[in-house]
């Protein structure tokens, strides 16, 4: 994972949805420079873009990731924390004693912990957990206009400050294999399906 730039068609195709979701989450949180953001699911496409956007904005970013993604996430500039549930709160506090905001791109039972860490459900946004209302957390599901988002994000992409890695490409005839790769998790980038002629 690097800041080498945004050069492949696959990366270009994969970026808009992840960028819109990440950008929307950060705007709805109202993050500010100098604060600390925790991202659950930080090694997924949304988490990776959100991490880079937040770093550009001057935040410290802690991300929950698998052990396989730890080094790549650290190279990106985030502070990696093993996402395993046992001892997660302690590992997060060891990485950053103060968590100001949480963006949940994971969606599996982390909202209670997130509210506990921030002390305020208004400082937690999830793009992935349908139980948000039970925790008083905002569920972000209404998209921002993609052209407006990309007007903000593309200059950062062109400058090499935001990169969306593509882990693998599959032809459309291998869509089932692509889906299997997605559901197994522990990816280090986006999975892209291509059609003939590309």
CATH class placement of the domain at 9-139 = Alpha Beta
Helix content: 25-40%
Q: What do we call the CATH topology of the domain at 9-139? A: Rossmann fold
What share of residues are in beta strands? 15-25%
Characterize the main sheet. 6 strands, parallel
Number of strands: 8
Instruction: Please provide the ordered H/E string of secondary-structure elements.
Output: HEHEHEHEHEEHEHE
Can you say what the CATH homologous superfamily of the domain at 9-139 is?
Answer: NAD(P)-binding Rossmann-like Domain
Radius of gyration over C-alpha positions, nearest whole angstrom: 16 Å
At CATH level 2, the architecture of the domain at 9-139 is 3-Layer(aba) Sandwich
Q: State the strand order across the main sheet.
A: 3-2-1-4-5-6
The secondary-structure class comes to alpha/beta
Mean pLDDT: 87
Q: Report the span from N to C terminus.
A: 24 Å
Q: What is the overall shape?
A: globular
List low-confidence stretches: 1-8
> Count of DSSP helices?
7
